Amino acid sequence: MPGLLGKRKSRAEEDPEAVAKAQELLRKHFEAQFKPIDLAPLPRRAIESEDEEDESSEEGSDVNSGEGDEWDGISGDEDGTESEGDESDDEPHVVQVVDYSNDSSAADGKMSKQELKVYLSSRPPDPTRKSSSSKPKPSKKSTDDSFPEDSAELLANDLALQRLIAESHILSEAGANPSHWQSSHAATTGTNTRAFATGRIAKKTTDMRIQALGAKESILTQQKMPMNMRKGIVKHQEEKEKKRRQEARENGIVLEREVKKKKTVRKRRERPVDLPAVGRMRGAELRISAKEAAAIAREVRGPQGRGKRRR
């Protein structure tokens, strides 16, 4: 029957004197081949103590296999190596920094137009001619470097001034411009004292800006409403605009040019080929009016009142 797992066979006891003799014979054989080694022979007590320590360590490992070994400390050699490592760590470590933000290789390897022309030509290059390194020519600086003509700040100011001129009549009605001739009267009107007046003004100005960008219709116009209400709203707007222009003309104020809307004329649609020339079709029925019937009868009878025929 096989032995139980986890158990080890007992180690055969060795005679320390025999081990010492064997070591002595091996040393003599080694000294015969090589240079003698000056080593003091180990005493028997030291050999016996080492054997006893080995046997005790093996027994302890068999009994306490799950327990870890005790820490015996750090030897002198290890202390020396660690001290050397600490000395090496104390030395300053230089970090190498590589900058890839500026691609100097692409700028250096690019050929100028003159060099490219010489390279592509069939003639051999002239060694006496110096390579013309194309340096960027200094651009002509404007007279006023702080405010060039196409600066973004000036363009933004121009756009704001144009919008202010176009929307001045809306702002003056709201009393935003105290120097305007309409501001004193407009500030006391009921349209500006009611709630959300500023929101209505912003809505009007937004509508004007959208129309300036090319919108076909205003966002304030209502698409579907009764005809009489639409006519009243249009009439009120026309009277208001007419009154504004008349007051400005009397006070010597120059307003924007009036843009007249073109009246859309409905063109007569072309009739299909299969429709009859006389009357109108209603389903499968052709309806002819009395006027059309009289015209047809007149064409059949011919002209009248032109005199009698001669025989």
Automatic annotation (TrEMBL):
Region Disordered: start-end pairs: 36-151, 175-194, 235-255, 292-311
Entry GO CC: nucleolus
Domain of life: Eukaryota
GO BP: any one term: maturation of SSU-rRNA from tricistronic rRNA transcript (SSU-rRNA, 5.8S rRNA, LSU-rRNA)
InterPro entries xrefs: Ribosomal_biogenesis_FAF1-like
Biased composition (Acidic residues): 49-90
Biased composition (Polar residues): 179-194
The protein, known as: Uncharacterized protein
Organism: Chaetomium thermophilum (strain DSM 1495 / CBS 144.50 / IMI 039719)
Organismal lineage: Eukaryota, Fungi, Dikarya, Ascomycota, Pezizomycotina
